[in-house]
DNA sequence: TTATGCCAACATGCATGCAAGTTGGCATAC
DNA sequence: GTATGCCAACTTGCATGCATGTTGGCATAA
């Protein structure tokens, strides 16, 4: 998903379609497997074995693994196989700071647009927030999680900064398992909806400082609820 | 330079030393060549040729190029060679937003420490700022640039977030050429020193919001001076 | 029982060969 | 002179072989 295109470059130049390569396939398959815990963290795999399982030779697997390492999802131990990365509480702290930084700046940028732009953004974000609210009333946790993800994705993407989008994407992949795990444990779904509305309001008002502050509040509260939860679970890593 | 270690993971786990591989060598050499413009942007190289020049086979070069692509420094055109990425004004805009986001959050974190930590950070930052001031008085532009780089590097590194450090490092690599070019054109060196002092003061006061604001001011002013400069040079890319 | 050391199995690093896609230029037709 | 089409040269994608580093277990000795 969206990982087909190359890295840099602010769009614009003609998108040369990349024919699907085995490397891309391996990258996607491995990432998927890691995200849905088919490869549990701490698992010690070998490129040979992965290659066999995916029906290709070691080369494309090796290259895919390099990319996954760059993404922080695995670690290549020279001549000792690849290790699926676990997430320590300290990683979660780091990840939240990155999110706060990037989403905060995105919110500032969004609140700094002309009226028409702000209204369009606010409408899009409000739609996702409404979906969250409804999912909450239905008690539909997965739907709530998806709508929440869409809200935050839109928040960053609408800022129109490809690098920020990419950073958030990478960070989201890293923290995917944590989100899945904690979705079931969270009590503050209602608070999230309210905070989202506050963010939207600040954007609509065209008040960058307030938008930034509301994003900070939202993410830091969520983090401060999440970390003790992980601790109480005795999870030193996940 | 600090690119030897793997990606993720908040330090802590024992550092298994990686024996230097040809891939690492190729990565470092290529990056260096790109940063100092031995490979000019837009240059169309072939892996074969690079391999020959570095005295190794295509394989390690290919893998190094993958990493450079992940860093946004080159683009691999399938079966048509590798393209050294240029920087468009829009890229510069994106880059500054990322810097503002990350450095801003770093400054907040620094200002949120207990007294001792803040004072240590402030002292370190003040030392670099003093070096800038002296370099300015001597008219020593390169020294000014190095001290400025050290200031901003310390600002982020002292926040103790490996992911933020890595993001800034990547972004710095991407914008290296722009910095080198514009160092000669800048007039506002004195203003930078003053703004650095304001950032330090806010951190020392323990006022996160103010520290964030001062970083914003500093970077956005610099950006707004830089962009017209690039435009007036008629540089559509560099 | 415990400690030591050797070794076979195994993992990746790297080189190289072959397959397939892309390009630029030359020959040809008009 | 201009347009068309074909082909040779070139480039990467991928498979595979060999070299080398790592490991866990078994045999051996204390």
UniProtKB/TrEMBL annotation, chains A, B:
One of its GO terms (molecular function) is DNA binding. The lineage of its organism: Bacteria, Pseudomonadati, Pseudomonadota, Alphaproteobacteria, Hyphomicrobiales. Keywords: DNA-binding, Transcription, Transcription regulation. PROSITE patterns: HTH_GNTR. InterPro entries: GntR_C (IPR011711), TF_FadR/GntR_C (IPR008920), Tscrpt_reg_HTH_GntR (IPR000524), WH-like_DNA-bd_sf (IPR036388), WH_DNA-bd_sf (IPR036390). It holds the Pfam family FCD. It comes from the Bacteria. Residues 20-87 form the HTH gntR-type domain. This is DNA-binding GntR family transcriptional regulator. It comes from Methylobacterium persicinum.
């Amino acid at each position: 998903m969206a990982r087909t295109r190359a890295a840099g470059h602010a769009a614009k130049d003609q998108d040369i379609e990349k024919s699907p390569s085995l490397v891309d396939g391996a990258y996607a398959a491995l990432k998927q497997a890691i995200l849905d815990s088919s490869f549990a963290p701490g698992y010690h795999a070998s490129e040979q074995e992965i290659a066999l399982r995916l029906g290709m030779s070691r080369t494309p697997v090796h290259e895919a693994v390099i990319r996954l390492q760059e993404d922080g999802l695995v670690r290549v131990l020279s001549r000792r196989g690849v290790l699926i990365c676990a997430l320590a509480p300290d990683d979660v702290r780091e990840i939240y700071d990155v999110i706060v930084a990037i989403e905060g700046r995105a919110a500032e940028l969004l609140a700094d647009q002309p009226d028409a732009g702000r209204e369009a953004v606010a409408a899009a974000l409000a739609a996702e927030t409404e979906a969250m609210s409804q999912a909450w009333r239905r008690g539909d946790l997965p739907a709530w999680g998806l709508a929440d993800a869409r809200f935050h994705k839109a928040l960053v993407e609408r800022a129109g900064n490809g690098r920020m989008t990419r950073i958030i994407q990478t960070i989201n992949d890293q923290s995917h398992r944590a989100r899945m795990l904690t979705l079931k444990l969270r009590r503050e779904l209602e608070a999230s909806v309210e905070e989202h509305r506050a963010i939207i309001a600040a954007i609509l008002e065209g008040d960058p400082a307030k938008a930034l502050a509301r994003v900070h509040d939202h993410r830091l509260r969520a983090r401060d609820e999440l970390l003790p939860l992980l601790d109480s679970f005795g999870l030193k890593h996940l």
